[in-house]
C-alpha cells in the first residue's frame, strides 16, 4: 500500500510550487518524527535520526548486478521505482496488491512481490528482475523453456512466472509437479497458459543453484 | 440484443470464392501451415524486452489519474479542481462529468469517471485525485436484477429499468407440450464476471502540435483511432495509434474508453506526454463485464427422448443501460419453442463483449436442462444429445465429436446421476457442446520484397495474445516458399493497412486471406522478373524451400536471394484484402469433464477435461492449442471461482481486487486433452478462428459433472461450495423433482 506523505487534515500547509515543496520535504527529513506526519518511512528503527521523507530521498539499488541511483519518495514501491524511474519495465503491474504475481522479482534469492515492497527497504540487497535474466540474446533456460512450450499468450504475466520459476528451479533443480504448483501458485495467468507453464517448468534442465 | 442475430452465430455462406481466392487457394500440402511454430515474439515477451503500452515511457512523461464516483447513482452538482491543481507535481486537471441538474450530470454506476488530474509521479497524481472536491446529490439505485425488476423499484433509468424484447416463436406450444411425456420446469442462471485483463486499460498520449500519438492497450488500433478522433473531434489523419504488445483484452479493449479520451485531454493541457493506466479496482468497475443470464424454462421431452417444446422467459443485466443478450435454447432442436427476453438495468458498470459473448450463458442454461431431461427419459446424456442435434454439417459436427470424445474420455465408465461410492468424495462426468461463428471480414495487408531478399508483411491488426505476429509470418512464408524466420511481420500500428478489431475470433480469418493474396501478388511480380532469366514463362515458376524454380524441375531455378537481386533499385510492393473463399465461418466442439466433489465441504476439484474442437484450416497448431487450453481455464474460472459481487444495500462492489475476486492458479488446473480436428474437409474450409469456442462449454460440463457426482442439481453459476451444499441438503430433503 502506498502511504500518504502529508497530513490529510492540513492540506493548506502544502507549498504551492513543486520546487519549494521538494525543498521543504527535504528539510522535514532531517527533523525527528512528529505527530501528524503520516507515512514517513523509518529506515532504521534503531536510529531515531534515520527518518526520511516525505519528499524525494536518494535511494541506491543493486538491480541485476548494476547500481541504480534514484531520487524518489520513500513511499515508492520497488516496482514503480524501476518501471517509472529506471525504465526497467520487464516486470509488470497487474493487481498492485501482491496477488497476481506479474511483478515477481527475486530479492536476495527469494521471490518477492515488488508491487508490495518499498524500494527504500531493499537497498543493499541483490535484486533480480526479468530484464536481467537473459545473457544478451541468449535466453535463460527457463525463458527458453517458456518459448519452446508456448507457455505464454499475451505475455503480461510471463515475466512474473519466469522469475518465480527461476527461483523454484534454483531451489529444486528438477521440480516435481507438486513443487511447481507450490512454487507458482502465487502467480495468475488470465490467458490460462498453466498447462504449458507446468510443461515448461518441469522440462528445464541444467540450471545451477543461484 | 437477444433477439437480433446472435454474435457468434455462423454467418450465411458467402457467394463463393473470388478469382483471387481461387488463384491463391491454400496449398493442398502446406509446408508451414498447420505445423507447430513457436511464437516469434516469445523471446521478447519472456525477457521483458517486449514493450507493452503500459511500459511506454516517453521523455517528460507524467501520470494521469481518474476521479470516479463512489456512488452507484448520483447527480454531480459541483466539481472543484482548485485544491488538486495546487497539489505537488500537478500539471493538469479536468472535469469529465459536467455538473448540473439534467441527466447528463448523472453518474449511474460506482466508478463512473467524474474528473481527472495529471502529475509528475503516479503517487502525486493519486494524492491530487483525492483533493478533487465533487459534490453529489445521491439518488436511489438498484444493485441486482431482482431489485431492478421489483414492482416497487425506484425507476433509475430513463424509459424504465427493463426493456422487453420481441418474442421468438415457432409452432404451437400447447401441441408441443401435449407430445411431452415429461416436463421440466426450472429457473437457471449465470452471474456477472469481469474481464480481469492482466494489463489494465489505458494509454500513453503524446501531442506534437495538432498530431496525437497514442500507445493504447487495445484490441483494435484502427477502431481506437476512430474513437479518439470522434471523442477529441480531430481528424483521424492526425492520430497514430500503436499497440505493439497488449496484455489481454478478452473483448473489453475494442474501445479506448473514457480513460483514453481523458488521457489525451490531460496530455493536451499539460503539454507533455501522459500515461494513464487504470488500477485493478477501476478495471473491475468500469471496463466491462460479462452480463448475467437468467431463464425460467419449461421444456418437454417425449417418452423416446425427443425434445418437443421449449418455453423460456429470460432476463439478465449488462449493467447501467446495457443489453444482456444470449442465445437460448442453445444448439439442441426444440421443434416448438417460444422465448421472451428482457434486458434488466442495474447501477453497475456496462457490459462489454467477453470471450464468446452470450454463449457460455446460453450454453449453461440449456446444458443443465438437457441433463435433467435426459434423466427423465433415463437416457445417457451423450445419446440424448445426439438424438436432438440439428442436421450435421462441417460447422455443426457435434454428433461425430460426441462419439469420438466419449470413446477417448472413457464415457462408458460414467455412473448414473449420483455417485454410489461411499465416503465424502464423489466423482462425476459431465458433457457439453458449443458453437461459434468466427470467420473473416475487413482485413488488409501490404507486402514488400526488397532486392536484398527481405520480406516485410504489414497489417494494421494487433495481437491480443493469440500469436498474430507469428501467423502473419507463417502465412507469408508458406506463400513465398521461405522459412518463417525470413519474414518480418509488422502489426499493431495505424501506419499499416486498416484491419478490423480483434473480436469474435475473426482476426486470423480476416488477415489470412489478405496476407495470402498480398504475398501471392508479390510473388507473381518476382516470377515476372525471374522468368526471362530462366527462359520460361512466369506461370511455369514455383517458390519452394528458399528457391524459385521451374515447376517439376527443381534444378532449373535460382535461390530466393539471387531472384530478389533482379528487383534492382525497385521494391516489389503489393496489397491484399480479405476476399471470400479463403476463410469460413462456424466452428463446433464438445467437451467432457471429470470432477471430484467433497460433499462435506462443497469444494469441486476438476480432474480432467477433454475437448474435440474444429477450426477449419489450422494456421499454427502450437498457438491454436494454447488458445484451447486458455479457453478451458477461463471457463473453469467462470464455473468455480470468479464472481462480481455487488452489495445489495450500498451497490458497492465488494471484491474489486484479485484477492477476493478469485481466479484459478496452478493448483486448480485439470489435465486437459485436446483433440483438434484436422481433416481434409476442415482444411478445405479455410481459416476460421479459435479464440472463443473453447471457452463456451467447460462451465456447463463441470456443472453437469457436479450433478452426476452429487445427484443434486445446482442451477446457477458459480458453483461455490455453499450452493453445492445447499443443493445436496435440498436433495436429501426430498429434492426438487
- According to CATH, the homologous superfamily of the largest domain in chain B is Aldehyde oxidase/xanthine dehydrogenase, molybdopterin binding domain
Helicity range of chain B: 25-40%
Instruction: Please report the two chains with the greatest interface, counting residues with C-beta closer than 8 angstroms to the partner's C-beta.
Output: A-B, 68 and 67 residues
Rg of chain A, rounded, reads 20 Å
Q: From the helix content, strand content and strand pairing of chain B, which structural class follows?
A: alpha+beta
Superfamily (CATH H level) name of the largest domain in chain A: Beta-grasp domain
**Portion in helices of chain A:** 25-40%
Q: In angstroms, what is the radius of gyration of chain B?
A: 28 Å
Residue fraction in strands of chain A: 5-15%
How large is the count of helical segments of chain A?
A: 6
Low-confidence stretches of chain A: 1-47
| Second CATH tier, the architecture of the largest domain in chain A | Roll
Q: Distance N terminus to C terminus of chain A? A: 30 Å
Task: Return residue spans of chain B where pLDDT drops below 50 for at least 5 consecutive residues.
Answer: 1-5
**Strand element count of chain A:** 7
- Can you identify the CATH class of the largest domain in chain B? Alpha Beta
Give the count of structural domains of chain A: 3
Name the overall outline of chain B. globular
Amino acid at each position: 500500500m502506498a502511504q500518504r506523505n502529508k497530513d490529510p487534515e492540513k492540506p493548506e500547509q502544502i507549498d504551492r510550487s513543486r520546487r519549494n515543496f521538494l525543498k521543504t520535504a527535504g528539510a522535514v527529513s532531517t527533523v525527528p518524527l512528529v505527530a501528524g506526519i503520516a507515512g514517513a518511512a523509518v529506515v532504521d528503527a534503531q536510529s531515531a535520526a534515520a527518518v526520511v521523507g516525505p519528499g524525494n530521498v536518494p535511494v541506491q539499488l543493486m538491480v541485476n548486478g548494476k547500481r541504480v541511483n534514484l531520487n524518489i519518495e520513500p513511499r515508492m514501491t520497488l516496482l514503480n521505482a524501476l518501471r517509472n524511474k529506471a525504465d526497467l519495465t520487464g516486470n509488470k503491474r497487474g493487481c498492485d496488491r501482491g496477488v497476481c504475481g506479474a511483478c515477481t522479482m527475486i530479492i536476495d534469492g527469494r521471490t518477492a512481490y515488488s508491487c508490495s515492497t518499498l524500494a527504500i527497504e531493499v537497498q543493499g540487497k541483490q535484486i533480480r528482475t526479468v530484464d536481467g535474466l537473459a545473457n544478451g540474446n541468449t535466453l535463460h533456460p527457463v525463458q527458453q523453456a517458456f518459448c519452446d512450450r508456448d507457455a505464454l499468450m499475451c505475455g503480461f504475466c510471463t515475466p512474473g512466472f519466469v522469475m518465480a520459476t527461476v527461483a523454484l528451479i534454483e531451489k529444486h533443480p528438477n521440480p516435481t509437479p507438486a513443487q511447481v504448483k507450490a512454487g507458482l501458485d502465487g502467480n495468475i495467468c488470465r490467458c490460462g497458459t498453466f498447462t504449458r507453464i507446468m510443461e515448461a517448468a518441469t522440462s528445464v534442465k541444467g540450471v545451477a543453484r543461484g | 440484443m437477444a433477439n437480433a442475430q446472435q454474435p457468434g452465430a455462423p454467418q450465411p455462406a458467402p457467394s463463393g470464392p473470388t478469382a483471387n481466392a481461387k488463384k491463391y487457394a491454400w496449398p493442398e500440402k502446406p509446408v508451414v501451415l498447420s505445423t507447430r511454430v513457436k511464437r516469434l515474439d516469445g523471446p521478447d515477451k519472456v525477457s521483458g524486452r517486449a514493450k507493452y503500452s503500459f511500459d511506454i515511457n516517453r521523455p517528460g512523461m507524467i501520470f494521469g489519474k481518474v476521479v470516479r464516483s463512489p456512488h452507484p447513482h448520483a447527480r454531480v452538482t459541483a466539481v472543484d479542481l482548485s485544491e488538486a491543481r495546487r497539489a505537488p507535481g500537478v500539471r493538469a486537471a479536468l472535469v469529465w462529468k459536467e455538473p448540473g441538474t439534467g441527466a447528463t450530470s448523472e453518474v449511474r454506476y460506482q466508478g463512473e469517471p467524474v474528473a481527472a488530474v495529471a502529475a509528475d509521479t503516479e503517487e502525486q497524481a493519486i494524492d491530487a485525485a483525492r483533493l478533487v472536491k465533487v459534490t453529489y446529490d445521491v439518488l436511489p439505485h438498484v444493485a441486482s436484477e431482482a431489485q431492478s425488476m421489483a414492482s416497487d423499484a425506484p425507476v433509475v433509468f430513463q424509459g424504465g429499468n427493463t426493456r422487453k424484447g420481441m418474442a421468438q416463436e415457432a409452432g404451437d406450444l400447447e401441441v408441443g407440450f401435449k407430445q411431452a411425456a415429461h416436463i421440466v420446469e426450472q429457473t437457471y442462471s449465470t452471474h456477472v464476471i469481469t474481464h480481469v485483463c492482466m494489463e489494465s486499460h489505458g494509454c500513453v498520449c503524446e501531442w506534437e502540435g495538432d498530431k496525437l500519438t497514442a500507445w493504447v492497450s487495445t484490441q483494435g488500433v484502427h477502431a481506437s483511432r476512430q474513437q479518439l478522433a470522434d471523442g477529441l473531434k480531430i481528424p483521424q489523419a492526425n492520430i497514430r495509434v500503436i499497440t505493439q504488445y497488449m496484455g489481454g483484452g478478452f473483448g473489453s479493449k475494442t474501445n479506448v474508453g473514457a480513460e483514453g479520451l481523458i488521457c489525451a485531454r490531460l496530455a493536451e493541457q499539460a503539454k507533455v506526454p501522459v500515461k494513464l493506466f487504470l488500477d485493478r479496482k477501476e478495471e473491475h468497475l468500469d471496463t466491462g463485464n460479462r452480463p448475467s443470464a437468467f431463464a425460467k424454462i419449461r421444456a418437454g421431452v417425449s417418452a423416446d427422448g425427443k425434445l418437443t417444446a421449449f418455453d423460456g422467459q429470460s432476463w439478465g443485466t449488462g449493467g447501467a443501460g446495457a443489453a444482456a443478450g444470449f442465445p437460448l435454447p442453445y444448439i439442441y432442436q426444440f421443434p416448438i419453442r417460444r422465448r421472451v427476453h428482457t434486458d434488466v438495468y442495474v447501477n453497475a458498470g456496462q457490459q462489454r463483449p467477453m470471450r464468446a459473448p452470450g454463449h457460455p450463458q446460453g450454453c449453461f442454461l440449456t446444458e443443465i436442462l438437457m441433463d435433467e431431461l435426459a434423466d427423465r427419459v433415463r437416457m445417457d446424456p451423450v445419446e440424448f444429445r445426439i438424438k436432438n442435434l440439428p442436421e450435421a454439417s462441417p460447422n455443426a459436427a457435434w454428433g461425430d465429436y460426441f462419439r469420438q470424445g466419449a470413446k477417448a474420455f472413457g464415457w462408458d465408465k460414467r455412473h448414473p446421476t449420483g455417485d454410489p461410492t461411499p465416503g465424502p468424495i464423489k466423482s462425476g462426468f459431465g458433457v457439453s457442446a458449443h458453437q461459434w461463428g468466427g470467420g473473416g471480414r475487413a482485413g488488409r495487408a501490404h507486402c514488400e520484397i526488397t532486392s536484398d531478399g527481405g520480406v516485410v508483411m504489414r497489417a494494421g491488426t494487433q495481437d491480443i495474445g493469440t500469436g498474430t505476429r507469428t501467423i502473419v509470418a507463417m502465412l507469408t512464408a508458406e506463400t513465398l516458399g521461405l522459412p518463417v524466420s525470413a519474414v518480418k511481420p509488422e502489426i499493431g500500428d495505424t501506419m499499416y493497412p486498416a484491419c478490423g478489431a480483434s473480436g469474435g475470433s475473426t482476426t486470423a480469418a480476416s488477415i489470412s486471406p489478405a496476407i495470402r493474396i498480398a504475398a501471392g501478388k508479390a510473388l507473381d511480380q518476382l516470377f515476372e522478373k525471374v522468368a526471362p532469366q530462366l527462359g520460361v514463362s512466369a506461370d511455369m515458376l514455383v517458390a519452394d524451400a528458399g528457391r524459385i524454380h521451374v515447376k517439376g524441375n527443381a534444378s532449373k531455378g535460382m535461390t530466393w536471394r539471387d531472384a530478389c537481386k533482379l528487383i534492382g533499385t525497385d521494391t516489389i510492393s503489393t496489397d491484399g484484402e480479405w476476399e471470400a473463399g479463403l476463410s469460413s465461418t462456424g466452428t463446433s466442439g464438445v467437451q467432457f469433464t471429470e470432477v471430484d466433489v467433497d460433499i462435506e465441504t462443497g469444494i469441486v476439484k476438476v480432474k480432467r477435461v477433454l475437448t474435440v474442437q474444429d477450426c477449419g484450416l489450422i494456421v499454427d497448431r502450437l498457438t491454436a492449442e494454447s488458445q484451447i487450453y486458455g479457453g478451458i481455464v477461463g471457463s473453469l474460472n467462470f464455473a468455480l471461482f470468479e464472481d462480481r459481487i455487488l452489495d445489495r444495500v450500498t451497490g458497492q462492489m465488494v471484491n474489486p481486487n484479485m484477492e477476493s475476486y478469485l481466479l484459478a492458479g496452478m493448483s486448480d488446473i485439470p489435465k486437459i486433452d485436446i483433440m483438434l480436428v484436422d481433416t481434409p474437409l476442415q482444411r478445405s474450409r479455410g481459416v476460421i478462428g479459435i479464440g472463443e469456442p473453447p471457452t463456451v462449454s467447460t462451465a456447463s460440463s463441470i456443472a453437469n459433472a457436479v450433478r452426476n457426482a452429487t445427484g443434486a442439481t445446482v442451477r446457477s453459476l458459480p458453483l461455490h461450495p455453499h450452493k453445492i451444499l445447499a443443493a445436496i441438503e435440498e436433495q436429501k430433503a426430498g429434492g426438487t423433482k
